[in-house]
Amino acid sequence: MKKERQTGEKRGEKRSGSRRREALQAAVFVLLFLAILLPVSYMVRTNGDVKDRFAGFYAEKKDSLDVVMIGSSPVFPYYAAPKLWGETGIAMYPLSTNVQRPAAMRYLMEEAEKTQSPALYIFEMRMFTMEEAGLMENMAYTRGVTDNLRYSPQRIRTIRGLVPEDDEEGRLSYYIDIMKYHTNWKMLALPSEWANMFYRHSHPLKGYTFRDEVGPQPMPLCGGMEGVLAVPKEQEAYLRELLACLKENGQEALFLVSPYGESPEEQQMFNYMAGIVEESGYAFLNMNDYYEEIGIVFEEDFADYGSHTNAVGAEKCTNFLKEYLTAHYALPDHRGDASYDSWDKSYELWKTRQDEAVRTIEERIANGDYAEIPEE
User: Which residue has the higher pLDDT, 307 or 195?
Assistant: First the structure.
């Protein structure tokens, strides 16, 4: 009887040991699978400026950024971070996507906080005039954010905050975005995409995008207009939520509107936003109230008929922002610090590229070579 019990115990030990080995093998398999899946997922994501911008953000040294600017497409062609660096020593980086939903701002700020502790956040406010329902009709606007974040618990929270539970594509394709991009295998043949294996490689211009097209329009007459008009209720809720989050975490912020071909209704919406922001103790800077001070020329300084600046307009807007930041915030000057060598290189590259862009823009104006108006 004793012998049978011992034999049974040995068999049980063998089965237990076998289960442990199987569990270990399964864990190793999952880890190897993830080690392969994650780099491939990053590589097959659609390439372009946004992808390069976010990978560049992740490549910045921990706690090295003084300013993080968050917002839609007015951010990356309007404000030349290398120029700001070269003239002030302030390290600013844009976390910007095309047609970025205001709902994404707080999540991008939380993403930034994982690796950076900026003294100032700047939020570009143009998209707060838009109806949320219209923005959600095209979920590419949401994917521009979620599909450019590194895999992490924060990315999951962002998806849960931005993607409705009943979305027809299903949240799963957002969580595991290779399901969306699995046909992009050709990306694996691009040498440039191998740099995205870990979604972390330096951006040569610190997130800035040059534009050398010219698309003229008359200067709007509504800059500085008085009166208020309520923004869509969803956007007001997102703004108040963002302000509460900033307050809770003791973070400094500037709310900014870049100059563009705004309508009288939009100007009044910005006045409405300014009231909410300033009541919370933060600054609201509508650059449409300062056309003369900026020196902006709508007939020459825009790439696409009043929506986004070209390189000439960007230099003017960056100059204006530089003066505002140095007058209102005590931001450090890191010039001469060897750990910021990459910023010095970006500034030198920007100067070369800026000279080229200015010449191109001048030639296009002289020749009447204007940007094509996209068909609606």
Answer: 307
User: What does the pLDDT look like over 317-350, one tens digit per residue?
Assistant: 999 999 999 999 999 999 999 999 999 999 999 9
Confidence of residue 47 (pLDDT cuts 50, 70, 90): confident
How far is Cα 72 from Cα 221, in angstroms, rounded to an integer? 24
- Looking at residue 328, what is its pLDDT? 98
Which amino acid does the sequence have at 303?
A
CA distance 291 to 296: 6
- How far apart CA 311 and CA 293 sit, in angstroms, is 18
Q: Give which of 170, 71, 369, 129 is closest to 265, Cα–Cα.
A: 129
Residue 39 near residue 198 (C-beta atoms within 8 A)? yes
DSSP string, 352-367: HHHHHHHHHHHHHHHH
Alpha carbon distances (Å) from 32 to 22, 52, 188, 376: 15, 26, 19, 47
pTM: 0.90
Phi/psi of residue 120, nearest 5 degrees: -150, 135
Instruction: Give the C-alpha separation, 76 to 93, whole Å.
Output: 9
Q: Which residues in 119-140 are b (16+ Cβ under 10 Å) and which e?
A: ebbbbbbbbbbbebeebbeebe
- Is the alpha carbon torsion for 101, 105, 111, 116 positive or negative? positive
pLDDT at 257 over 90: yes
Tell the residue number behind the tokens 């956007």, with chain if given. Answer: 235
Residue carrying the six token digits 């993080």: 68
| Residue ranges of E strands in 236-330 | 253-257, 283-286
Contacts of 225 (CB under 8 A, 6+ apart): 264, 267, 268, 271
134 torsion bin: left (phi>0), alpha (psi -120 to 50), beta (else): alpha
Query: SS3 for 78?
Result: helix
* Contact predicate 316/295, CB 8 Å: yes
Condensed to tens digits (0 to 9), the pLDDT of residues 100-147 reads 999 999 999 999 999 999 999 999 999 999 999 999 888 899 999 999
Q: For residues 154 and 110, what is the distance between their CA atoms, to the nearest angstrom?
A: 8
